[in-house]
Amino acid sequence: MSTQELATITAITGLVAALAAFVSAFAAWKAVSLAKSASQSAEMTEKRIMVREIVYGCRETINTATRAQDLAQELMKVIRDLAIFAGQSGSSRQKVTEGTIEKDREKIASAVEVINNLFSGEAELNNLEVEQLNAMYATMSINLADASAVREKFETKLSSLNEEVRPYREKAIST
User: Fold this and answer.
1) Which of 24, 40, 57, 149 is deepest in the core (most CB within 10 A)?
2) Please, what's the b/e burial string for 58-96 (b: 16 or more CB within 10 A of its CB; e: otherwise)?
3) From the centroid of its chain, how far is CA 23?
């Protein structure tokens, strides 16, 4: 083989190697581009799920708080009825119980206010970062738990007080 043939073969081999390197670089760039696109798509999906959970949780918190407020009104009525039937209207027991209910109502009102400040619309939530959504979700969860606890407390107390006042009502109806 002559020097010229050897140089030509070497040049062709170099061009093939350069072409292979270019194809490899292009494939790597395409893989990075696809990975980035997949990552963005996964993040968007995660954000949509979080937004949906936050919206649902905010609505659930408001519904729970509304139910608790209704129960509080029923409780106040039953407490007054019980005090009247027992001849203890205006007693310290009545005042303490009403005060406790009022504090819990304020706690619920505070939770609803936090939720209303937190949730200003689904469209705005979609523009937040995942970390911000996580913080909002945590806040919403805490307020939902608080509202649920107060609602359950009111339900239990109402059931108990209804049992206490039942004999008085039955007696009043039978006479």
Assistant:
1) 57
2) beebbebbebbbebbeebbebbebbbebeeeeeeeebee
3) 48
Residue 88: phi and psi, rounded to 5, are: -125, 35
For the segment 69-125, what is each residue's pLDDT rounded down to a tens digit? 999 999 999 999 888 888 888 788 888 989 999 999 999 999 898 888 876 666 678
CA distance 14 to 81: 99
CA 163 to chain CA mean position, Å? 35
Distant-in-sequence, close-in-space partners of 89: CB < 8 Å, separation ≥ 6: 80, 83
Angstrom CA distances, 148 to 63, 69, 83, stand at 10, 11, 28
Q: Backbone phi, then psi, for 25, in 5-degree steps?
A: -65, -40
Query: Three-class SS of residue 133?
Result: helix
Q: Which of 25-29, 53-57, 114-118, 146-150 has the lowest mean pLDDT?
A: 114-118
Quickly list H helices, the chain. Answer: 3-85, 92-118, 122-125, 130-174
